[in-house]
Amino acid sequence: MQNQDYHDIASDALEHIKSYSDGSQSVTSAVVGAEVTDTISEEEFIQAIVTELKPFMHDSMTTDEFYKLLKKYFGLASR
After folding, report:
1. Residue boundaries of the structural domains of the chain
2. Which residues lie closer than 8 Å to 45 by C-beta, 6 or more apart?
3. Is the pTM of this model over 0.85?
């Protein structure tokens, strides 16, 4: 099985805000450019996550507690 690479992407977007006489607004957005700014391996990605979570981890941490940290700080919800 081949390891995946993960990319940081920088994007530019235009946002158009339209105001109506009743005080409401509508917003539309469009991405006008995107570029890959960095690429890291799967191992580097995992290491970055563990480094970020290290202050919240402890030796007797359960798997459920670890998953809760992943969900809270990285939005990861599946096991």
Report:
1. 5-74
2. 6
3. no
